[in-house]
Design brief:
By secondary structure, this protein is of the alpha/beta class. It folds into 3 domains: about 55 residues; about 190 residues, Rossmann fold (3-Layer(aba) Sandwich); about 120 residues. Helices cover about 30% and strands about 30% of the residues. The protein has 15 helices and 16 strands. Strands 3-2-1-4-5-7-6-8-9 form a 9-stranded mixed beta sheet. Strands 11-12-10-13-16-15-14 form a 7-stranded mixed beta sheet. It is globular, with a radius of gyration of 25 Å. It starts with a helix and ends with a strand.
Length: about 400
């Protein structure tokens, strides 16, 4: 706590601001040795801050000001700003409660849509940091040092939106994924939260199983969003409201140039099963996580390569699919001799290997076939039935 207070005072000093600006491009890991005895402030602490700030340029650039302070745990757990910006298009309302504010990235973006904002934070050091950082943006939020449990018991206020991001590393334990083990326990608080808000939004681990989410929060789930950033799963976001609902599912992949979305309630439709055709399609991670691959493939005229699978095929190219589309060069049974002959014929020494519903991992296939990673070739391995395993050689479509 005192260290944070000291850092807030130090970073506000004009001499420190000038030092940071003039040495921004230097290696901050060496600054303590280089300048430790030459300046009147704590260069070692400043170096740790500048190291975090450098990382923040790729994650929360818009949030960081010349006097922003970061803590390693809060920075590691905070939402990427592109994900937070996307969530700000979903989470709207005039009166908003952020029940577990942390570093404040979500509320920084989501709060732009609200008129009355209350932020709760249980850690006193984090409260101090939150007031300082949001103050740099002249945001006059009502920041309270309290737990969500105590706040719900003591207040009769009603909100348009309550947003909760439970701590998945409570009390420095190993990371947990079950919301009942997180802090606060949003499962046990669900009814209290719904009594105090029109909509409750909860951020959950991307490792959480969808069926477990439905078990914990039904029948109040309106929507489950599987959110990926550049094909890396970042979080599951659920929207709850009072009453009985049939949940909708949405897969979102936020890309460098555009964001792709797909929504469906029809989880039971399936595309036809077939052998490999001219094109091979691998869905992105958001589609896979949301379990929307089947309805998505069905709507886009794709065939499936194995039951309950994640590999699909088509006899013609389809534009703007949410995933990767490849031109099939050759499909064959997974037999070592035939694969080695194909490799020799085409002089292949590198390949990008993926396996699903297969008895080996990509590293094991690579070792057996004596291939290195990378190159223009893509090899997909899967098992269609107990005795039918296949290998599909592909190249990227132009």
């Amino acid at each position: 706590m005192k260290e944070t207070e000291d850092m807030i005072r130090m970073i506000a000093m004009p001499v420190v601001q000038q030092f940071m600006a003039s040495h921004e491009q230097e290696d901050w890991g060496k600054m303590s040795l280089k300048y430790g005895n030459k300046v009147s402030f704590d260069v070692a602490s400043l170096s740790r801050q500048m190291d975090l700030r450098e990382k923040a340029k790729n994650k929360i650039k818009e949030f960081v000001t010349p006097q922003t302070l970061l803590l390693p745990k809060l920075f590691e757990q905070c939402t990427h700003e592109l994900v937070a910006k996307y969530k700000s298009t979903l989470i709207t309302g005039d009166k908003l409660l952020d029940a577990t504010t942390g570093l404040g990235i979500d509320i920084f973006f989501i709060g732009r849509n609200a008129k009355d904002i209350t932020c709760l934070e249980a850690n006193p050091e984090h409260v101090l940091l939150l007031k300082h950082n949001l103050g740099q943006h002249h945001l006059n939020y009502n920041i309270q040092h309290t737990t969500l449990e105590f706040f719900l018991e003591q207040n009769s206020l009603h909100y348009d939106v309550i947003y909760v991001d439970p701590d998945r590393r409570p009390e420095a334990q190993q990371r947990v994924f079950d919301p009942e083990q997180c802090t606060p326990n949003v499962v046990s608080l669900k009814n209290q939260l719904l009594d105090k808000a029109n909509r409750v939004w909860i951020k959950l681990s991307p490792m959480m199983d969808l069926q477990a989410i439905i078990h914990h929060f039904s029948p109040n789930i309106k929507h489950i969003y599987s959110i990926a950033l550049q094909n890396e799963m970042k979080e599951l976001l659920i929207c709850l409201s009072s009453g009985i609902h049939e949940p909708e599912f949405t897969a979102i992949n936020i890309g460098k140039e555009k964001t792709q979305e797909y929504t469906s309630k029809h989880m039971n439709v399936k595309p036809p099963l077939s052998m490999v055709l001219n094109y091979f399609f691998e869905p992105n991670v958001a589609l896979i996580k949301s379990r929307l691959c089947m309805p998505y493939a069905f709507e886009h005229g794709l065939n499936i390569l194995y039951p309950q699978g994640y590999y699909f095929t088509s006899d013609h190219p389809i534009k703007d699919l949410q995933g990767r589309l490849f031109k099939v060069i050759h499909a064959m049974p997974y037999k070592k001799e035939q694969l080695q002959q194909f490799i020799k014929t085409h002089s292949i020494n590198k390949a990008n290997i993926s396996c699903r519903n297969f008895f080996w991992k990509p590293e094991e296939v690579k070792k057996e076939l004596k291939l290195n990673d990378g190159g223009e070739w893509y090899l997909f391995c899967y098992t269609q039935s107990e005795k039918k395993s296949f290998a599909v050689w592909c190249k990227k479509t132009t």
